[in-house]
Amino acid sequence: MSASPTASNEDSGADLSPFVEILRADWAELGNNTELPLTEVEIAQIRGLGDFLDLKEVTDVYLPLSRLLNLYVAETQDLHRVSSDFLGERSKRVPFVIGVAGSVAVGKSTVSRLLKELLSRWEGTPRVELITTDGFLFPNAELERRGIMARKGFPESYDRLALLKFVADVKSGAAEVSAPVYSHLSYDIVPGERAVVHAPDVLIVEGLNVLQSPGSGQELALSDFFDFKIYVDASTDNVTQWFLNRFRKLRDSAFTNPASYFHRYAEMEESKALARAEEIWATINLPNLTENIAPTRSRATLVLKKGANHAVESVLLRKL
Questions:
Q1: Is 290 helix (H, G, I), strand (E, B) or coil?
Q2: Which of 17, 91, 108, 302 can bridge 102 by disulfide, Cβ–Cβ 3.0-4.6 Å?
Q3: Would you say residue 187 lies in a domain?
């Protein structure tokens, strides 16, 4: 196991970094005695469009991570019981909440789905739920009314209070909590449809800006409810290429559906469609990454540093 400064602290010295960096080979050794509970078929079903994920990647990176999270859950539950006893309160099981953040196209959805499947196979965490913050985007009509349709995915495009209430209710141990459902086909909230969470052992909350600190005039942040925070990291050049590659694949698949919000790109001349994709990245996704998402990296408990082809090269774990 080796420690080195994170990229954001190289100029100021490794001693100022809140993380210890564990190279992939060292991290992989932490899971050597653990049997992988997933098959190649299951991994293929979890893998997102354009993402790289195979048995070795799961074994080397995500199996040790799921075991670490399982240990965190157990220790958090023990601490909660001890605290309740100290305060003379009746101990009530509290769900463990994990936040997963990162740029568009960095692979955070695949990471979240994979962790859900792995954690549900560990003793002590059989009930794992996954919610994406897409469901808490304002409907397109509301975004249009506010004049921020072009800033969809930026912090102001979410119903922040509804999202806070949802996670707070889950964290309080409510038997049943529901969230709105978002359709990537229609690129909008699905009217009347809800995703229901039933008192899970673990709730994974995945989204672009889930690790943000409170904004001006705000006393509470979503991440205040998280027990563990994961940031999926990669160079801007790599993420840009992944976004464009994914756009090409969607143009030949999901966008061909006449019901797709982006169907026009499937019918458009390829060069013009790709030029539009580059414009979307440069004017929307890149500014959001630079201004809002990347600055939250330092607030993570753990950072997955990806290299080319989505393979994780090292893991940064916050120093205790």
A1: helix
A2: 108
A3: yes
53 within domain boundaries: yes
pLDDT of residue 6: 39
pLDDT value for 83: 77
- To the nearest 10 degrees (0 to 180), the angle between helices 236-251 and 270-280 is 140
Q: What pLDDT is attached to residue 9? A: 44
Which tokens is 244 given? 């464009």
Establish if 174 belongs to a structural domain: yes
Residue 306 clears pLDDT 50, i.e. is over it: yes
Residue-wise pLDDT for 279-292, tens only, equals: 999 999 999 999 99
E strands, 103-168, are 128-132
Number of domains in the chain: 1
Residue position matching structure tokens 């072009």: 150
pLDDT value at residue 124? 85
Q: Who wins on pLDDT, 150 or 50?
A: 150
Q: Residue 181's domain spans which residues?
A: 7-318
Place of tokens 């090269």: 313
Q: Within 10 Å of residue 186's Cβ, how many Cβ atoms? A: 12
Return d(Cα 77, Cα 70) in angstroms, integer. 11
- Are residues 211 and 228 in contact, defined by beta-carbon separation less than 8 angstroms? no
CATH code, 277: 3.40.50.300
